[in-house]
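so my prof wants the structure for this chain in the tokens format not the other one, which i didnt know existed until like an hour ago. anyway here's the sequence
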Amino acid sequence: MTLLQAVLGVAVGFASGILSGLFGVGGGIVTTPAVNSLLGGTAIEAVATPLPVIVPSALVGSYTYARAGEVDFAAARWAAIMGIPGATLGAYLTELVNVHVLLAVTAVLIALSAVRVIGSSEPHDARGAEDAAPWKLGLVGGTAGVLSGLLGIGGGIIMVPAFTAWIRMPVRQALGTSLLVIPALAIPGTIVHGLLGNVDWAIFLVLTLGVVPGARIGARIALGVRERRLRVAVGLFLLAVAVAYGVAELTALAGDGG
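here's what i got, hopefully its the right format
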């Protein structure tokens, strides 16, 4: 790795960390393409290396939210209990499932949830999560885990809208709780890819130098924004991710069909 690539890696990690802390996601939507196109990683390293980077990023972000009282630990526990085996299952299903179809369907679900997040005018409070049945929280975590294992993502793009629109958490609590669950989903994939030698640990190091302060800053920004504005910002971000995924996967499916 050259000095320029190291500097770029820290900058990419910083941007990824801000997104992670601000929107409750892993940040892989930034780091994955950067590893391959800017930092000299191979295609498999671009999928594998962001997974261990997700862990410190999400932990720093969730700690910041927890300090502000915006993490539901009981909900995180139930989501993680089902999310860990879900992530393991997703990793095994990688060779059996058409990922393009899965991502296209996921994009539609994320878009619908994003619209609900933006359009909801009814204020949510912590009682919504406290009253949620454990099976609902487990279903959210299990679904996020399967997609995490399949796609090498943190799972926050599933958990944040589900916690907000379905479990009816306040948006800050949904972000903080999602970030606390994400490391549990990323660790199984990290172990597997690490043993297979798919992780470039030098790239991991420079990305981590950026994501740790970035996640802290992103979380502090979110904690300082009014609930309604944060809800709209999170919804628009998720909608943009859904559109990007949908267009990319439909294009890939059309190419395969041709």
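also thought this was worth mentioning. The mean pLDDT is 86.
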